[in-house]
Amino acid sequence: MASEQPGFWARVQRASVERLHIRLESLVVLLALSTAMALLSPYFLSLSNFLNILLATSTIGVLAIAATFVIGSGGLD
After folding, report:
1. Distance CA 30, CA 49 (A)
2. The model scores a pTM over 0.70
3. Secondary structure in 3-state letters for the chain
4. Is the dihedral angle over the CA atoms 56, 61, 62, 63 positive or is it negative?
5. Is the pLDDT of residue 2 over 70?
6. Is the pLDDT of residue 65 over 60?
7. Which of 32, 44, 55, 76 stands the most exposed, by the fewest C-beta atoms within 10 Å?
8. What gap in Å lies between CA 51 and CA 42, rounded to an integer?
């Protein structure tokens, strides 16, 4: 008697392939947008723009690292 439903590992494999496709699609869209912006604006790939983005995200990055240590230690003491 053959089962019509796929087995557990087949479902796991299909789900992992779907997640990979979503990640790859997101990467392709990001690369396409970056290429379009680089072609449309001479300032997009400039050093000053990169430094401004780095400066804007550095505060959030430091807070995220601190929150990681708080969560890892098990609480807010």
Report:
1. 17
2. no
3. CCCCCCCHHHHHHHHHHHHHHHHHHHHHHHHHHHHHHHHHCCCCCCHHHHHHHHHHHHHHHHHHHHHHHHHHHCCCC
4. positive
5. no
6. yes
7. 76
8. 15
Whether residue 70 contacts residue 76, with contact meaning beta carbons closer than 8 Å, is answered with yes
Domain ranges across the chain: 1-42, 46-77
Which residue has tokens 């796929």?
Answer: 6
7, 15 contact by CB (below 8 A): no
> Do residues 75 and 69 touch, judged by C-beta distance below 8 A?
no
Q: What is the pLDDT of residue 70?
A: 87
